[in-house]
Amino acid sequence: MIKLMELHDENSFKIRSYQTAVNILERGEDINVIGKSIAELQQISGIGKSIAEVIFALENEGSHTSLGELLEKTPTGILEVLEVKGLGPKKVKILWQEMGITSTHELLEACQSGQVAKAKGFGEKTQESIIQALAFKASNSGKWLYADVEDQVLDLVNTIKRLEGVGQIDFVGEFARKMEIVEVIELLIAAEDRVLVIKSLEAIEAINRDVKRSSPYKWRGSFSSIDLQLVIHFTQKKDFINEKLLRIGSKAHLIYPAKENQTLASILSKEKYDSEEAAYQALGLPRIPEELREGFFEFEWASEGGEKLLEEDDLKGILHNHSTYSDGKHTLRQMAEHCKSLGYEYLGISDHSRTASYAGGLDIEKVQKQQREIDELNKELAPFKIFKGIESDILTDGSLDYPEDVLASFDFIVSSIHSALSMDRKRATARLLKAIENPYTTILGHPTGRLLLRREGYPVDHKVIIDACATHNVAIEINANPWRLDLDWRWVHYALKQGVKLSVNPDAHAMEGYADMRYGVLVGRKGGLTSAMTLNAMNLQEIEQYFEKQKAKSKK
């Protein structure tokens, strides 16, 4: 509604009041609008009667007359244009009213012909960034974050399990390998009567069959509510393990010459196996976990004994979290008490630093106030401990944004980039290198700044960055937020080979954010991460000693 009000030049005071309401609701402690009456909503500080009425209508009816009126006078395609990265309502208004652009298709054509660059307030650079944003969006059509579809997919499988004629059922393909982005969900079903099962599938409203693309041995279609493809393979019980192995592993995994030029695909063609363990044993190897079956390094891992991969239960603490001191939803106390209730031994609080004014970054006085509160809470919550941290912005020249005496007051520092993301590879790499070389940097936060399916990361030389972290004993974050999952799992194995510890961090801005830790563990496992190489798998005493050693480094 705010975007549309700005687009149609509504009263600026009204727009500000709506934005204030959004901020209150997003950052309010335990605010839940579900089930509240208009009168109850008005009790929330900053929410007046008119906005309370809007909130109530949106929650209970899915719309509001004001929203309906805004949508009625807005071409449908403009709603898509408003979602293009880098285009705010003011720029979209110029494109629409002065250039007649009412869809992303027309916008792309205008950019490609050079017309957008000539418009007031745009230019060649903006035009090129729009082209890149549209291309990025198009390339990701039909793709979904694993975390966003996981529950829906699991619900479907539980429904299918109850159908008559369904024997064994399991995931195969990219979902089984826990890929961070999925575009096809594949299932394997053992069924003696395929026709019966296929007929039963018709009764499931959550999926739609594509008859033309299906066959007696394969059901093809999609989910009803989202643009996500679904393929269901059928086999017999005696062939289930062989088919499962063939359909989980990537092509590179299946054809890798693991033993005397024998591949997994070749041994599966010779006989039937009643377990995955038996099939891999025929290659002289332990069972390789599904998430490793990418044809990357897993056979080397298995031949060396298959060291146990990281499990969620191995994690002893949660580092890189935000509170209401900066842009978090919950207080420091709430974040700490919830962390403790989950069974963790420690919490690392790392609110935004002062340069991040957009996120309520902490000035020096606020840092000192937070650290005093941490001291008090630590007395109360012991033996649980809150470590004093900060997510320090890496400035454009690579420096951190506090003087040395303030940096020295923290137990640990997560150094991250949040601005000037358009640097070329050489400058972006040099910027990170300087931050890594800073003796106060403990962890390099989300190394590329990417947002999966939304924004490409800034270009860096991963090998150079990882090698520098090895040299300066800086850990690298696997940011567990499903939109980030950065460091990418494809670089985890290299980091481990170089002796670099990784820290699985949720970047939690609310207590619920701790649940994202599991996604960080999943991508860590894909890269071969073990508890021994995970910073926050250290117990409280171990990580206290680690932080003290790191701080001693900064004093030299």
UniProtKB/TrEMBL annotation:
Annotated ranges, domain Helix-hairpin-helix DNA-binding motif class:
39-58, 79-98, 114-133
Keyword terms, alphabetized:
DNA replication, DNA synthesis
Q: Which residues form the Polymerase/histidinol phosphatase N-terminal domain?
A: 317-396
The record's CDD domains line, in alphabetical order, gives: PHP_PolX (cd07436)
Q: Tell me any Pfam family this protein matches.
A: PHP
- Note the Gene3D superfamilies from the entry: 5' to 3' exonuclease, C-terminal subdomain, DNA polymerase beta, N-terminal domain-like, Metal-dependent hydrolases
Name of the molecule in the record: Helix-hairpin-helix domain-containing protein
